[in-house]
Amino acid sequence: MFVFVPYLRFKLCDIMKGISVVVPLYNEEECVVDCYEELRGVLDGMDVDYELIFVDDGSRDRTVSRLLEAGNDDRRLRVIEFRRNFGQTAAMAAGFEQTRFDVVVSLDGDLQNDPREIPPMVEKLREGYDLVAGWRRDRKDKFWTRRLPSMIANRIISFATNVRLHDYGCSLKVMRGEIARGIKLYGEMHRFIPALADEYGAKTVEVPVNHRPRFAGRSKYGLSRTFRVILDLLTVKFLTGFSKRPIHLFGSIGLFSGFCGFLLLFYLLCDKFLYGVDMGNRPLMSLGIMLLTISVQFVFFGLLAEIMVRTYHESQDKKTYVIRTIHEPGGKPSRDSRRAA
Q1: CA pair distance 23, 39, nearest whole angstrom
Q2: Are 80 and 193 part of one and the same domain?
Q3: Enclosing domain of residue 256
Q4: Residue 157: is it exposed, middle or buried by C-beta count within 10 angstroms (0-12/13-18/19+)?
Q5: Left (φ > 0), alpha (ψ -120 to 50) or beta: where does 36 sit?
Q6: In terms of domains, do 57 and 154 share one?
Q7: Per-residue model confidence (pLDDT) at position 138
Q8: What is the pTM of this model?
Q9: Are residues 217 and 84 in the same domain?
Q10: Where does residue 137 rank: exposed (0-12), middle (13-18), buried (19+ CB within 10 A)?
Q11: Which residues, given as ranges, of the chain have pLDDT below 50?
Q12: Where are the alpha helices (DSSP H) in the chain?
């Protein structure tokens, strides 16, 4: 029987061997029981310890009550219920934080992701990868409103992050526990998990998975998310590329702006002294001075950002690196799962 307890973060000295499955939910009363039972059937057949973590993102229907009824006597089921709707990224972040096993699986609760793909993806992970991402190669969604925008977004994200995947939007992923618990998710960045994991040196592979038509409920996604994805991509690009060296970004822009301003003013000076052309009332004069001013501002932005980054790292004793393995003579290799800031 379920006992309601306050929010509790699990802290274990040694992460246990097994599989943690994280499923975010939002108004999925029509398919949540089928999702739970199908996951149980697949994981029972794997002969491993496991836990099912369902995170309800403020559903307004009977999603939670139906799930609790179905898993009333199941000690491997945990249900995290939000006070209101915070979004899928927040639901995944809460689920990842509560995981207790060394392998973490994420998937949507609408059963379009096939739970039977979990065993082969786990086996792929054990080949030495840190993250196995699903690729809905034969996707069962509408072309113009879902598949086409997703294809464009995947191309842009792959180009911007240098992590080449066909399907960033597939929620079915299998990853090592230290990766899932180390990544900090904000906004709507759950789709950028492979890019964020790459920042920690994760070895990622993509495998085709079965995608099924939605049999109940309705999709929570639309074209409006495309614009939010672009904005989040800018954040991810900054975090993965310049969060530890912001002066390289702001300074580069500042130096380029200053160089252009210098060339314009040099050209005007040459016109003035060689041809006697008045430079005081020319628009190029104002443009050159503005570019030089912008140059100084961006360089100072970079310096201030460097100070903030160092304060952030040193005040919390956060490392700027991640150790995969320490090889000690005469001993076994040891893993260090401390995450970099």
Answers
A1: 10
A2: yes
A3: 246-315
A4: buried
A5: alpha
A6: yes
A7: 86
A8: 0.76
A9: yes
A10: middle
A11: 1, 3-13, 336-341
A12: 32-44, 63-70, 88-98, 118-125, 148-161, 177-182, 193-198, 224-241, 246-275, 283-315
